[in-house]
């Protein structure tokens, strides 16, 4: 009977003690969060209560399981299993604590710089996320190596593994060349300030916003809510447009093809009225000029400004729509037309055909005496 009760007491006592310590720790964190609600570190640390309890429970069981005589037959297997659980949960706990500390530091920085320099906040956010991914990868690799070293066969093979580490490193480097290049490109993007989370970019003719940056790939969310996933090495080896680089303010243009008699002065006044009623216009500048002309039309360019890429799109759409509507309603003669008047022959050129009075043209010019062979 004692052989059965002792394992139950050991396991049950470890679980109960773990729950009590976990509850007390969570209670302290809740009180600290309520007292310092402006500091998110306490709330973020509460997310680590599950790995924290796993570490406590596995450590208590690892230190007391050998007291149960019933489990002596499986002592090695149980001890190794508890060691693996302890290493895994400890790695999980380290990642959660590091994430809480880093996120708290970033939140303080963002709240202090949000109104001064939003671009710098996005840059720091990109660097923080990539640093957390690197830290998580390092912790996971160390934990996995520690788990493997708990097996005697792996410890015995350690010398041969170290002896062949140079050759394996060369082979792995050649095999994972593209992966390593993407990883280094991701670090270059993070600390070289080439592109940040939230930046508006144009890549391969697609306009969108940087939604996610990892060590190996980058996700662009387009205006129609599609996601384009690209390797980060693309941004270090190919040109692309970054509309958020420096200041997010932008200048946009609206082109219209109109008749030569279009009322330009009235159009400038109408453009000014449209922009004054458009909340997306930032009020910096506007202009309307003729940029080109053809035998039948002229090209009119309306220049507008806005505080960012989203607003400049809205301003351009509003200006184009309302200008065309105003021209149709008040100046329809200014719209492009197709000339159908009779052609007038050039003076002194009787060889050119002239139409009859009913509009029917003469025979081809090749029948005239001047063009016969």
Please describe the topology of this protein.
Blueprint: H1 2-35, H2 41-45, H3 49-64, H4 75-113, H5 118-149, H6 152-156, H7 158-163, H8 165-175, H9 177-192, E1 200-203, E2 206-213, E3 217-222, E4 227-231, H10 233-237, E5 241-242, E6 250-258, H11 264-276, E7 281-293, E8 298-306, H12 309-330
Antiparallel strand pairs: 1-2, 1-5, 2-3, 3-4, 6-8, 7-8
Helix pairs in contact: 1-3, 3-4, 4-5, 5-9, 11-12
Explain what this protein looks like in three dimensions:
The chain has helices at residues 2-35, 41-45, 49-64, 75-113, 118-149, 152-156, 158-163, 165-175, 177-192, 233-237, 264-276, 309-330; strands at residues 200-203, 206-213, 217-222, 227-231, 241-242, 250-258, 281-293, 298-306. The protein is of the alpha+beta class. Among the domains are: 2-113, no CATH class; 250-334, Alpha-Beta Plaits, CATH 3.30.70.100. The strands form 2 sheets. A 5-stranded antiparallel beta sheet has the order 4-3-2-1-5. Helix 3 runs antiparallel to helix 4, helix 4 packs antiparallel against helix 5 and helix 11 crosses helix 12 (309-330). The chain is elongated, with a radius of gyration of 37 Å.
